[in-house]
Design goal:
This protein is mostly helical and 213 residues long. Helices cover 67% and strands 0% of the residues. The chain is built from seven helices and no strands. The two termini are 17 Å apart. The model has no long low-confidence stretch (mean pLDDT 93).
């Protein structure tokens, strides 16, 4: 990776990590119109996926600095895979917000204020940096399955809270509208497929122009 690309990667990853940290902290200080305040904000995949992406971005930023200082010449494999998993998570957040939630709740709610960073800016910065800048080594097809882990874990928790327990019994409200009209079966079928399509797309873009060994 060229020095110029490493510098841009460092800038983007630093922005992701710093701004996301500020937004999450703000949930404990200011009432949000989109995300519930305080610890309840962690009920949302938006928050959780962005935190994971921010951790991955901070990790990559540290290694970008080491690359620029000449201490290493590439990202460690673990850091690259972590960034991949984080990028899949937030890009899925972006796609869900644009194509599913915005028509239900309206674009101003989904992309206004701090929600703009969590639903658009951070996901797109993660997507662009990993797909076109941080091209150190090719991702294996088997590694693309790792991108599904956050979706599967969160989906299981959401299913238990919304469908098994239910809001009336102390569970979560169906704020993602995945069970509208009892349509949970459709969601279970569609979401993993959509998530894996995102996994494959990002892997494909990342692997472009990286020679096979």
């Amino acid at each position: 990776m060229s020095k110029k690309k490493t510098v841009v990667s460092l800038v983007l990853n630093s922005l992701i990590a710093l701004v996301t940290t500020g937004v999450v902290v703000s949930y404990f200080l200011v009432e949000s119109k989109v995300i519930r305040s305080g610890s309840e904000s962690f009920r949302f995949f938006t928050t959780d996926s962005n935190i994971l992406a921010a951790v991955a971005a901070a990790t990559v930023a540290v290694f970008d600095i080491k690359i620029l200082r000449g201490k290493i010449d590439r990202l460690p494999r673990a850091a690259e895979v972590l960034k991949y998993v984080g990028t899949v998570g937030v890009f899925l957040t972006f796609c869900t917000a644009v194509f599913f939630l915005a028509p239900i709740y309206g674009a101003p709610m989904l992309f206004g204020g701090t929600a703009f960073h969590m639903h658009a800016a951070a996901p797109l910065m993660s997507f662009l940096s990993f797909s076109f800048l941080e091209k150190h080594s090719r991702l294996k097809l088997s590694e693309s399955l790792l991108g599904l882990l956050p979706v599967v874990v969160y989906g299981a928790v959401y299913f238990v809270e919304v469908v098994v327990i239910g809001e009336a019994n102390g569970g979560w409200k169906d704020f993602y509208a995945f069970n509208q009209g009892g349509s949970w079966g459709v969601t279970v079928a569609v979401m993993p497929c959509a998530a894996y399509a995102v996994c494959l797309l990002i892997r494909l873009l990342h692997n472009l122009w990286i020679p096979k060994k």
